[in-house]
UniProtKB/TrEMBL annotation:
Coiled coil: none annotated. InterPro entries: DCC1-like (IPR007263), DCC_oxidoreductase (IPR052927). The lineage of its organism: Bacteria, Bacillati, Bacillota, Bacilli, Bacillales. GO terms for molecular function: protein-disulfide reductase activity. This is Thiol-disulfide oxidoreductase.
Amino acid sequence: MSSIVLFDGECNFCDSSVQFIIKRDSKGYFHFASLQSDVGRKLIKEYNVSEDVDSIMLVENGKAYFKSAAALRISRHLAGGWKLFYALMVVPSPIRNLLYDFIARNRYKWFGKKEDHCMLPSPDVRKRFL
C-alpha cells in the first residue's frame, strides 16, 4: 500500500525534502502532491484539515499526520539508517514539534520560495506525483 506525502509546492526546502524521500524510497511507497494542487486541496477537504495548513501532511492507511508525526512516519519507510528516527515518536509531539515549527517558520527565509521553474522528473518518478 502506498501513502501520499503532501508538501508546500512553493517551498524550496519542501521540494528538496521530496527529492530526499524519492532517493531513499526504493520501493516507491510514497506518492506526492503539493498542498496547492487539486489533489492536495481534495485531500485537505476529505480529511477536514484547515485550508491554511502549511505543514507536511502524510496520508497513510486512511489517516492524516502532520508536522513531526508525518516526518517520522515517512522516515520509517526510507532506506538506510533513516528508519531509526522513527524511535523519536516516543517523545511527546509538543516537544517534537518545537523544532519542526522553528524550521517551518523560517523555511522561506533560509531556503527561499520556488520561482516559476521546477525540476523535470524522469518518467518513473513523474508517475509518483498526483
